């Protein structure tokens, strides 16, 4: 019978470390292997493709498209191309000269000829108003009257609206007369452009987003901390119970998870408000008196309590699934080595739950940082979060560019956090019971 | 659990304190649900316990909100919508998610980390951003305010749950079983339907339930993407809360909680069955 | 006629219900081939309209919205300009619509329907019988009228009231508010009650907060307050002093799918009788002068509706008429300032 | 073989019983005394209660009744972390988030030992198991055998008087296992520590122990040094469990002092040592080691001698197992050393077999 | 022992190589031919590539280069489910959601066999492994040994010509394992099927196989029937891996035909069989089975004879392992049968040891 003869081998094996490995036929080993693996790779990939394509089209692409809005800026370019041309050499100090006003008049006149749906001055006015209050009425009023203007146009425009005499408006037109802009991001960071085009802080009483981001971050940290404080003991308790009992308690965790968010939020209103169940109970028991009922809702406390409740399952599930897999022999080993139960817990058990804490913490933090409904209902003034502001800009103030800028910043933050988590712990540890 | 003989008084106190703390937390979890159920029988149109209710006077209780709910066409339609959208979205996400999980759990899957990241992004991206993105996108391709639009949106939101649970199930899946099936002469398709699928079914079902609940309880995307025709239960509750806060939503919620309990029981039974099949003793 | 279905967007709840009973039902009786779908998307109507227009896929036929939103939409060209005299019915006495509709209510693309107001309401039980509040100034007087106040979480109404309570004449309020000093003055006044405020967002929250006893004062829409007090028996009183009045009405999306039917509906639904009918179901005042005399009793309660109208003479003694142009121009800036103030 | 002089009673189990569920006793009336410095092995089939005994001793389970003492003092009311017993767990239970050094340092740290002393002791312990260079590694970076050594070092580093080991070598392959057996035995001898060792591998038990307690069904079936266990099993269970064994069944015909005659089912009569036989007429199991059977020349001279047929020859390297038919038993095994004598046997060949009386033990019937 | 007459080449591996990562070869140039009806065992340490070979044969891995044929036809491009090879997996891989009957019926079903025929074949297969009454049970309700039999039955029920078994007995305890070895061997003989069997237990390999391929480091080190493997190892690895072995190291002094003299490090000269020695002056490893060493009387007469000291006695029931110092080697093991002769040895005692030339093989140095 053939015995493995080790003499003639295509360089495979020990001969030299640096030389490329080849198979007996002389094909490089890597390539031969790749050929054999390609089919399997394709098979695996083919299974993922449908979902990947689906998520990319209905989810990733729309978000990318939305993010595009945060830099898209064609309203002014579309409306007054000639004016912008004339403004090119303007120094930005004195009022522009007559030629610019004449060009603006020509632009407005041309716009008036277009069918109403395609008229570009309306959107331009709205766009300019984001930067300067009353700019919208300056544009719309003038556009309506422009057909009656005679040269010299400068006076006519300034007569029609005082803002045309304000170099600030012209600076804005010049600055925003480009197809892409950073000004939404500037605004989202509570900054603005000054007369020289530098980016400076806004008036103190108009700064909101940075502190709102800060508040959102702080609330998310607190909520994550609370869910951890409440989630850890019960996850631990469930993990030391026999399966049967643990699953019963698991239903207690999942039941609120599966009850409508709106209902839970309303229920918290019933419980927490000044005339609510808890306050009334405390008054009846004589713990507090009627005048000093606790205010636990329509403020930060309310947001924290309701959101902690809502997000607690997201902490408990990964924690529990990690704790279940920690064999009891570690604690026993620690005790047999002389550690008190507390030391054994602190030094041996707790560190091993860190992946679960990481998964739960990241999940809760990410969800809470983008939360919207509950803060809107129970947050009052101090419990609102950045998402409420994004929603308001999309739905009410219609400043979609600013909404997109705020959303992009939030998204980038969340993705960075997730990436970090993935690096440190690994996304595979994300489990749900 | 009996306590060992060496426990000191301090140990015993801690032993009981810990349990008390745990039960307090469980109570915290259940409190809103416990409060909601009696209030749904309130005879008054407010969210407060009336004096009659507190004294257990039968006049304080009524079924009027249940009646309200059952008689209201818009509630009925919203229930139909919720189930229609939820089930359709769940079918899409369960199918695509299971397929993807099968691919992802193969060792030769290229760029696993990146793809996994993309696939579970609907769970990671703040809802408001997803909703806004879909709102703009669906408006531009005539999908806004259509059933298809809402279903696709919810399917996208539900897939991460399916991918995660099925992938986790597959980690414990014994791949020598599929090899054994191939070895015994079964084609890959046959192997999937006769061997793999029955064994990972508990994972698929629990992922699908997560996906279903995600759709069933989703409000933000619905607010942005759905039209009046596609109103779901949460959307109906939302207008209830905006318009006039009536205990009807509590009646609806109570009914839904009962459904949840039923579903959870099903999941638990399935899990036990799955473990029995895999030869572990049911815990 | 081919079956047609109209999607009409409004505010939902009791308000939509009043439109259904006053307009939709009688009109559909006359036009059996038409069905009306009610969408309560008015709160975000402008966003949706813009999105629909940009997508070139307009699915809405008729939208109920506020005049400030209508003005923006009109400038963006996403709703139709209206020739009121051409398109709408004259008054029974032949007065053309442009004269019959109350002064200042018509807009380039806007057909007014009702006049509503934001009013101050209080819980009598919160104060001693001999010291009940009666004016906007009392809202800002925490000394004599302690208790929490529920205000809407936006600058509109709140800033106007702050100046009014600070002694500015209702007619001058917007001039003052156009100046930085005026804005500072308004916020300074608001500062005095800041610690006593609970903000509400959604319309139903205000009466709920009053009913739950959470607050002593609440601002709110007068129709909703009427409903809570008269229909559901909530204990509360309305203060008509300084009521902030505003119109609400129809706009027609440009390129809507069923323009002909919409025009027919509008002609019917905005005539003198129909506007008066709506007041049977909700306590908002009709936008036509000729409708006022026809306002009758509440359809279900049988109480006289006239005294509950914002426009009733005994209520209309110190109105502040909301200036939409002002809010369109300065709204963004003031909202930012207000948000900043709330955060402090 | 045992060269320790046990001062009986360093660890004692006194009528200990244990039930987990209140219905069945997992440990039934256990009495056991382990001397200081002794290497004591608990051997038994799966589920016989070995781990349970160890856990009661370590304090992780409480005895349902009875008393356990350590160094003369009852330990029921001493919590596990104060018992000062080292323990090697079956899966090693090395703390995965600590390095090897930190694992070893842990028991010293919780005893409040100073840093330099700790380092010195850790180093000495690592050297003892020849893992001096591995202090910085994590357990996951070690092979099974290396992990095992670290677990051993950790259990010994705080110098306990008593070390418990629960199937510490169960997961290792044969070569590694043998090397580790040797090392453990070596450490036991050089440190003089008392070891209670659990295994279900009889070779391991025989090789390593001073005394072996054979467990079955929650009871100690026999407690004796290895040689006694093998040579003089008290009952059929021990005989069958320890080593290979031929069993012949029959009825006791006659008893003559310490020997007896047993009539097998096919009528042959075998003379055997009377060990566990109540009287004549009862059923008995005869136990006979394969290597004590003489095959071929010399067989006829033994007190028991029969004609046998070779059924199968199994080559095992150092010896050949011969399956034969003896007295109607088809599974009768004889071990023949693999040297000149054994090499030319054939299947079907007839040959005489024989054995002496003292090698054949008449035991209880089961 | 081998009584099959292999028609060479039912299964062949022709210069097969395999790499998983493109960097290291796990199987290096494998040439192997297995005859029809042969019981062929692959034996080797963990990680030596045994499972990989089996998986390539079954079609679950593709060879990186080289060709595998089955019945003369290359099978590289035949998908696993069309190869018609039965396989018993290490963990059995019984389908947990099917009953035993359904498990057995599965391969027949996918072959489109009719119901009644299926039932009949399943019944016959179950009877063959003596599990006729268990058709309705689920795998989880069976013990390890029973599961093993079902796995075997399932691999055989569709009557493949070739059955692969990957450490099928690895998880069973010793007694069960021995019984199953016997049953598998029995079934192989009665069905005449070709078996490729993987194990890392040398006893198992020696007991069961017609031929054993000893694997190490991705190569076949020796392919031979068991007796040849044990008696005449080709190299030091095989000598060390199969059976227990004493190794003595030294330099070749002189070569005399088929024998040679090796001078050990302590100066002693040993005469040995020349097996794998290139010439005089090179290093060599001498390999000597412990049971071939004669201790005490008779030792002096052997061609190699030395004075030795007893260092340790290890009692192992049927024999005693004596660790001695021989020619400066402290780890020299001699096996003494546990009978009258062996019983009265003492540690420290001196005694002569000796062995014959043909029992001592001079191999390559490693
Ligand atoms: N925590 C427990 N709860 C209930 N029964 C238990 C528990 N631990 C062990 N048992 C039961 O007690 C009996 C003895 O178990 P034990 O672990 O002591 O056996 P063992 O001799 O160590 O076996 P093995 O060799 O398999 O480890 C078994 O029947 C087992 O099922
Ligand atoms: N899927 C795989 N990917 C990468 N390397 C692998 C894979 N499977 C096995 N190997 C490597 O190939 C080598 C041979 O593995 P193989 O499983 O064939 O060994 P084996 O002889 O069966 O060992 P054992 O007795 O432990 O089962 C090992 O070094 C192993 O780490
Ligand atoms: Mg055990
Ligand atoms: Mg293997």
UniProtKB/TrEMBL annotation, chain A:
UniProt-listed Gene3D superfamilies: MetI-like
Any one GO cellular component localisation term in the record: plasma membrane
Localization: Cell membrane
Subcellular location, principal: membrane
GO biological process, one term: transmembrane transport
Pfam families documented for this protein: BPD_transp_1 (PF00528)
InterPro entries documented for this protein: MetI-like, MetI-like_sf
Alphabetized PANTHER family for the sequence: ABC TRANSPORTER PERMEASE PROTEIN, INNER MEMBRANE ABC TRANSPORTER PERMEASE PROTEIN YDCU-RELATED-RELATED
Protein name from the UniProt record: ABC transporter permease
Protein species of origin: Rhabdonatronobacter sediminivivens
TrEMBL record, chain B:
One Pfam family, short name: BPD_transp_1
Subcellular location as annotated: Cell inner membrane; Cell membrane
A GO cellular component annotation in the UniProt record: plasma membrane
Primary location group: membrane
UniProt superkingdom: Bacteria
Protein name: ABC transporter permease
UniProt entry keywords in alphabetical sequence: Cell inner membrane, Cell membrane, Membrane, Transmembrane, Transmembrane helix, Transport
GO biological process: transmembrane transport
Domain ABC transmembrane type-1 as annotated: residue spans: 79-267
Membrane topology: Multi-pass membrane protein
Transmembrane regions: 20-41, 83-102, 114-138, 150-173, 199-228, 248-270
Entry keyword annotation includes Iron-sulfur: no
Family: Belongs to the binding-protein-dependent transport system permease family.
TrEMBL record, chains D, E:
Enzyme class: translocase
One MF annotation (Gene Ontology) recorded for this entry: ATP hydrolysis activity
Cellular component GO terms held in the UniProt record: ATP-binding cassette (ABC) transporter complex
Matching InterPro entries: AAA+_ATPase (IPR003593), ABC_SmlMolc_Importer (IPR050093), ABC_transporter-like_ATP-bd (IPR003439), ABC_transporter-like_CS (IPR017871), Mo/tungstate-bd_C_term_dom (IPR008995), P-loop_NTPase (IPR027417), PotA-like (IPR005893), Transp-assoc_OB_typ2 (IPR013611)
EC annotation from Swiss-Prot or TrEMBL: 7.6.2.11
Record-annotated ABC transporter domain positions: 11-242
Gene3D superfamilies linked to this entry: 2.40.50.100, P-loop containing nucleotide triphosphate hydrolases
Pfam families with a match to the protein in the record: ABC_tran, TOBE_2
Function: Part of the ABC transporter complex PotABCD involved in spermidine/putrescine import. Responsible for energy coupling to the transport system.
UniProt subunit comment: The complex is composed of two ATP-binding proteins (PotA), two transmembrane proteins (PotB and PotC) and a solute-binding protein (PotD).
NCBIfam families for the chain: potA
PANTHER family registered for this protein in UniProt: SPERMIDINE/PUTRESCINE IMPORT ATP-BINDING PROTEIN POTA, SPERMIDINE_PUTRESCINE IMPORT ATP-BINDING PROTEIN POTA
Protein name (record): Spermidine/putrescine import ATP-binding protein PotA
């Amino acid at each position: 019978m053939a015995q493995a003869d080790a003499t003639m081998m295509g360089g495979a094996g020990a001969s030299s470390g640096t030389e490329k490995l080849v198979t007996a036929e002389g094909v490089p080993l890597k390539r031969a292997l790749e050929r054999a693996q390609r089919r399997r790779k394709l098979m695996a990939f083919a299974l993922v493709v449908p979902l990947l394509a689906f998520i990319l089209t209905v989810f990733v692409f729309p978000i990318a498209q939305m993010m595009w809005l945060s830099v898209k800026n064609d309203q002014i370019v579309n409306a007054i191309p000639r004016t912008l041309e004339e403004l090119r050499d303007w120094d930005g100090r004195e009022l522009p000269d007559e030629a610019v006003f004449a060009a603006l008049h020509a632009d407005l006149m041309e716009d008036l000829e277009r069918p109403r749906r395609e008229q570009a001055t309306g959107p331009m006015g709205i766009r300019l108003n984001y930067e300067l209050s009353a700019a919208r009425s300056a544009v719309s009023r003038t556009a309506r009257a422009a057909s009656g203007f005679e040269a010299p146009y400068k006076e006519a425009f300034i007569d029609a609206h005082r803002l045309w005499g304000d170099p600030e408006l012209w600076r804005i037109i010049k600055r925003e007369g480009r197809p892409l802009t950073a000004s939404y991001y500037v605004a989202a960071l509570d900054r603005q452009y000054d007369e020289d085009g530098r980016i400076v802080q806004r008036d103190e009483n108009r700064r909101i987003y940075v502190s709102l981001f800060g508040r959102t971050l702080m609330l998310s940290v607190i909520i994550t901390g609370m869910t951890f404080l409440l989630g850890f003991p019960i996850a631990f308790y469930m993990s030391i119970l026999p399966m049967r009992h643990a699953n019963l308690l698991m239903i207690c965790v999942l039941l609120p998870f599966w009850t409508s968010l709106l209902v839970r939020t309303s229920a918290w209103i019933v419980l927490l408000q000044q005339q609510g169940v808890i306050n009334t109970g405390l008054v009846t028991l004589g713990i507090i008196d009627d005048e000093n009922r606790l205010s636990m809702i329509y403020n930060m406390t309310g947001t924290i309590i309701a959101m902690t409740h809502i997000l607690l399952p997201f902490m408990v599930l990964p924690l529990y699934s990690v704790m279940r897999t920690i064999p009891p022999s570690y604690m026993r080993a620690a005790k047999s080595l002389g550690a008190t139960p507390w030391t054994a817990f602190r030094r041996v058990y707790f560190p091993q739950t860190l992946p679960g804490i990481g998964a739960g913490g990241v999940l809760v933090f990410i969800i809470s940082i983008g939360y919207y409904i509950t803060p809107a209902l129970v947050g009052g003034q101090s419990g609102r979060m950045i998402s409420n502001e994004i929603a308001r800009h999309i739905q009410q103030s219609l400043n979609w560019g600013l909404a997109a800028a705020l959303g992009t910043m939030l998204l980038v933050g969340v993705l960075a956090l997730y990436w970090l988590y993935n690096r440190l712990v690994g996304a595979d540890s994300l489990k749900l019971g | 659990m009996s306590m060992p003989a060496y426990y000191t008084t301090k140990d015993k106190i801690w032993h009981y304190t810990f349990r008390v703390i745990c039960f307090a937390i469980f109570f915290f979890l259940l409190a809103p649900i416990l409060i909601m159920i009696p209030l749904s029988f309130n005879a008054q149109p407010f969210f407060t316990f009336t004096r009659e209710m507190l004294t257990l006077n039968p006049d304080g209780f009524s079924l009027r909100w249940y009646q309200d709910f059952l008689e209201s066409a818009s509630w009925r339609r919203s229930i139909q919508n919720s189930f229609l959208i939820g089930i359709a979205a769940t079918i899409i996400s369960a199918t695509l998610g299971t397929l993807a999980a099968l691919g992802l759990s193969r060792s030769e899957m290229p760029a696993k980390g990146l793809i996994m990241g993309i696939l579970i992004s609907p769970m990671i991206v703040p809802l408001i951003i997803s909703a806004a993105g879909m709102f703009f996108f669906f408006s531009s391709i005539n999908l806004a305010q259509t059933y298809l639009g809402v279903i696709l949106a919810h399917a996208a939101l539900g897939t991460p749950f399916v991918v995660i649970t099925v992938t986790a199930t597959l980690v414990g899946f014994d791949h020598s079983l599929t090899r054994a099936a191939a070895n015994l002469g079964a084609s890959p398709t046959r192997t999937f339907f006769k061997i793999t699928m029955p064994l990972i079914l508990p994972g698929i079902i629990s992922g699908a339930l997560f996906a279903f609940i995600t759709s069933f309880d989703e409000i933000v995307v619905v607010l942005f993407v759905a039209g009046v025709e596609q109103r779901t239960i949460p959307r109906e509750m939302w207008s209830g809360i905006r318009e006039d806060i009536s205990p009807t939503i509590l009646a609806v919620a109570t009914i839904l909680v009962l459904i949840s309990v039923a579903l959870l029981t099903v999941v638990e039974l399935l899990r036990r069955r799955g473990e029995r099949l895999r030869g572990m003793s049911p815990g | 006629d081919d079956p047609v279905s109209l999607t009409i967007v409004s505010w939902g709840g009791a308000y939509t219900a009043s439109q259904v009973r006053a307009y939709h039902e009688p009109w559909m009786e006359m036009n059996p081939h038409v069905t009306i779908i009610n969408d309560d998307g008015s709160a975000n109507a402008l966003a949706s309209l813009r999105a629909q227009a940009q997508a070139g896929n307009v699915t809405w036929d008729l939208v109920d919205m506020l005049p400030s939103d209508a003005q923006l939409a009109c400038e963006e060209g996403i709703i139709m300009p209206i020739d009121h005299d051409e398109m709408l019915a004259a008054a029974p006495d032949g007065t053309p619509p442009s004269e019959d509709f109350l002064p200042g209510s018509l807009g380039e693309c806007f057909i007014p329907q009702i006049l509503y107001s934001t009013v101050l309401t209080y819980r009598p039980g919160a104060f001693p019988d001999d010291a009940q509040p009666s004016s906007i100034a009392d809202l800002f007087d925490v000394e004599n009228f302690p208790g929490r106040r529920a205000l809407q979480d936006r600058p509109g109404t709140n800033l106007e009231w702050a100046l009014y309570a600070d002694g500015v004449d209702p007619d001058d309020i917007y001039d003052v508010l156009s100046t930085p000093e005026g804005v500072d003055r308004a916020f300074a006044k608001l500062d005095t009650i800041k610690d006593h405020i609970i903000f509400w967002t959604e319309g139903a929250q205000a009466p709920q907060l009053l009913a739950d006893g959470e607050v002593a004062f609440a601002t709110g829409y007068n129709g909703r307050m009427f409903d809570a007090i008269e229909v559901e028996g909530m204990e509360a009183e309305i203060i008509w002093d300084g009521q902030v009045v505003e119109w609400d009405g129809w706009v027609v999306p440009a390129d809507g799918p069923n323009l002909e039917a919409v025009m027919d509906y509008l002609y019917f639904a905005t005539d003198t009788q129909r506007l008066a009918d709506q007041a049977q179901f909700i306590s908002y005042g009709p936008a036509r002068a000729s409708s006022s005399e026809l306002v009758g009793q509440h359809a279900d309660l049988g109480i006289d509706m006239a005294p509950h109208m914002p426009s009733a003479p005994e209520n209309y003694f110190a109105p502040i008429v909301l200036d939409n142009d002002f809010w369109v121009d300065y709204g963004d800036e003031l909202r930012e300032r207000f948000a900043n103030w709330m955060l402090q | 073989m045992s060269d320790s002089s046990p001062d009986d009673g360093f660890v004692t189990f006194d009528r200990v019983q244990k039930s987990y569920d209140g219905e069945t006793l997992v440990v039934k009336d256990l009495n056991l005394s382990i001397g200081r410095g002794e290497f004591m092995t608990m051997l038994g089939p799966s589920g016989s209660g070995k781990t349970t005994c160890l856990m009661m001793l370590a304090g992780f389970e409480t005895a349902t009744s009875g008393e356990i003492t350590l160094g003369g003092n009852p330990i029921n009311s001493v919590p596990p972390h104060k018992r000062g017993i080292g323990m090697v767990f079956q899966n090693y239970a090395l703390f995965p988030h600590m390095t090897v050094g930190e694992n070893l340092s842990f028991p010293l740290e919780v005893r409040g030992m100073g840093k330099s002393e700790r380092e010195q002791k850790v180093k000495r312990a690592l050297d003892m198991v020849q893992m001096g260079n591995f202090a910085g590694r994590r357990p996951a970076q070690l092979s099974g055998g290396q992990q095992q050594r670290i677990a051993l070092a950790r259990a010994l580093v705080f110098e306990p008087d008593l070390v418990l080991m629960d199937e510490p070598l169960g997961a290792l392959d044969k070569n590694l296992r043998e090397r580790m057996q040797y090392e453990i035995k070596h450490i036991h001898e050089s440190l003089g520590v008392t070891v209670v060792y659990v295994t279900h591998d009889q070779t391991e038990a025989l090789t390593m122990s001073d005394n072996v307690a054979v467990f079955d069904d929650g009871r100690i079936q026999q407690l004796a040094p290895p040689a006694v266990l093998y040579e003089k099993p008290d009952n059929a269970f021990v005989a069958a469990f320890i080593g290979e064994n031929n069993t012949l069944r029959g009825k006791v015909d006659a008893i003559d002092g310490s020997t007896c005659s047993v009539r097998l089912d096919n009528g042959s009569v075998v003379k055997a040592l009377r060990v566990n036989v109540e009287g004549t007429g009862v059923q008995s199991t005869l136990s006979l080691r394969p290597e004590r059977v003489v095959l071929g020349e010399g067989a006829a001279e033994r007190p028991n001698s029969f004609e046998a047929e070779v059924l199968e020859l199994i080559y095992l390297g150092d010896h050949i197992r011969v399956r034969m038919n003896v007295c109607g038993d088809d599974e009768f095994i004889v071990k023949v050393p693999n040297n000149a004598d054994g090499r030319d046997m054939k299947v079907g060949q007839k040959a005489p077999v024989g054995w002496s009386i003292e090698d054949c033990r008449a035991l209880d019937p089961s």
